[in-house]
Amino acid sequence: MIRPENQRTASDAIDFIDAVVGALGKMTDIRSASAALTASATVEYGRITVVVNASGSIMETVYAEGIDELSYGQIARATVQAAQTAAAEVERKKKELLGPLSAMRMGLPSMMELPEELVALRAQLPEPTRAPLTPPAERDAGGSRGKSNRILDR
Asked: Is 26 helix (H, G, I), strand (E, B) or coil?
């Protein structure tokens, strides 16, 4: 016969495990969404647009009509400015997206507080996903990459 206090402890352990498994699933979803983030910035009256991935790496640079009115130095400075602006925007988006993840971690006990059996759950933590370097328009659900010859006119 199971004692009532043991039954309560077993029930608490099951609830805790369910909460941890749910949190792991949410972490995986949030990390995947974070790795897929992109941001763009357009400068010089729409003549230069830069798109960056979640790590701030440039994925695409588009020079629109009228670019020939700028000097090479102006193009270089404006391209860097657009890349930095886009990188700052993707960081803002990432912080916004990862905010709930930080709060979720704060609510979980530390590894030192977990029984040995539960420490094995750490192996289920998702690995960080690398941000893709292909522009969003060149990605598809099947993972193949196509070429796009589009000019952004913003």
From this structure: helix
DSSP strands (E only) in the chain: 38-43, 48-53, 58-63
Place of tokens 């009532």: 4
Over the chain (154 residues), the average pLDDT of each successive run of 10 is 62 75 79 89 97 94 97 97 97 88 67 61 66 74 43 38
For residue 114, give both structure tokens: 């977990």
Environment class of residue 35 by beta-carbon count within 10 Å: exposed (0-12), middle (13-18) or buried (19+)? middle
Place of tokens 């196509």: 146
CA gap 117, 115 in Å, rounded:
5
Q: In Å, what is the CA distance from 82 to each residue of 43, 62, 85, 96?
A: 6, 11, 5, 21
Q: Which residues pair with 39 in a beta bridge?
A: 52
